[in-house]
Each structure stands twice: as structure tokens, then as C-alpha cells.
Amino acid sequence: MPRSVPGRTLVAVRFVLGGASWFTPKFFIAATGLDPFANPQAAYFSRLFGVRDLALGIGLVATRGDARRLWWQLGIMCDLGDAAAGVLSARNGQLAPGRRTWNGLLAYAGVVGASLGAAALVDGDV
Questions:
Q1: Whole-angstrom Cα distance, residue 46 to residue 32?
Q2: pLDDT > 70? residue 103
Q3: Which of 36, 37, 50, 79 is most enclosed, with most CB atoms within 10 A?
Q4: pLDDT at residue 21, rounded to an integer
Q5: Distance between CA atoms of 80 and 63, rounded to whole angstroms?
Q6: Is the per-residue pLDDT at 7 higher than 90?
Q7: What are the helix (H) ranges across 2-41?
Q8: Is the distance from CB of 39 to CB of 79 less than 8 angstroms?
Q9: ∠ at Cα 47 (93, 95), nearest 5°?
Q10: Which residues of 16-32 are buried (b: 16+ CB within 10 A; e: fewer)?
Q11: pLDDT tens figures, 11-35
């Protein structure tokens, strides 16, 4: 289990968000400001996100040393990819219309996750 505050925080967030998006995809999608009823197939993609976050969390809890360092790096890569996807989707009008601030928060969530992962690495949480 990670020892640093950023590490423990990120693991908790991965389990909470991963579990919510896997087990309650419509609720999770609605909570992010999107409309799960306009696109019922979105639940499938919610579960893809969920299993990814759960796997990243399990990888951090179950490893130490170089293996955990790799899990931190993979998580940072995924979180930066989430941030980029949020920026591109907001720019292309593919997120909730009229909710500019909320759409920006979706992109920033990836930046926060990557920052927590980087902070855990800097703290030597391996």
C-alpha cells in the first residue's frame, strides 16, 4: 500500500471512481454532467474507465519497488490522457452543452490525478 498522502489519496480516488463507474455507470455518467439516457451505450465506456481505474489502484496496492514505480507511471500516463481527452472533447462540443465550467473540471481531474501520482513518485513512494 502506498505510504505517502498523495499516494493514499490517489488509490482511494481510483477505487471510489473506478467502483462507481463500473457498478453504477448511469449514475456515474450523470454525475459527470453527461446524459446516460441520450446515449445508453455510454455505460459500456463508463465500465471501461472503471476497470482501468480499479486495475491501476490494485497495481499500486499489490506492488513495491520498480513494479510500483511502473504502476505510478502508467497511472500518470492514463490521467494525462484523460485530461487531453477532456480538452479535445470540450473544444469539439462533445461534452455537456452550456456547462463550460463543469467540462473544464473534467479535464482538470486528469491533471489532478497525474499530479498526485507524480507527487507520490517524488516522495519515493515505491
A1: 11
A2: no
A3: 79
A4: 94
A5: 22
A6: yes
A7: 5-23, 25-31
A8: no
A9: 10
A10: ebbebbbeebeebbeeb
A11: 999 999 999 999 999 998 888 777 8
State the amino acid at position 65 in one-letter form.
Answer: G
Question: What's the whole-model pTM score?
Answer: 0.88
Please tell me the distance from the alpha carbon of residue 99 to that of residue 43, in angstroms, as a whole number: 21
How far is Cα 24 from Cα 86, in angstroms, rounded to an integer? Answer: 21
Q: Which residue has the cell 473534467?
A: 106
The ranges assigned to domains in the chain are 5-122
**pLDDT-based confidence at residue 101 (cuts at 50, 70, 90):** low
What are 1's three cell numbers? 500500500
| Cβ pair 120, 57 in contact under 8 A | no
Instruction: Let me know: does 25 contact 47? Beta carbons within 8 Å.
Output: yes
Distances (CA, A) of 107 to 16, 31, 126: 18, 15, 27
Residue 76 grid coordinates: 500518470
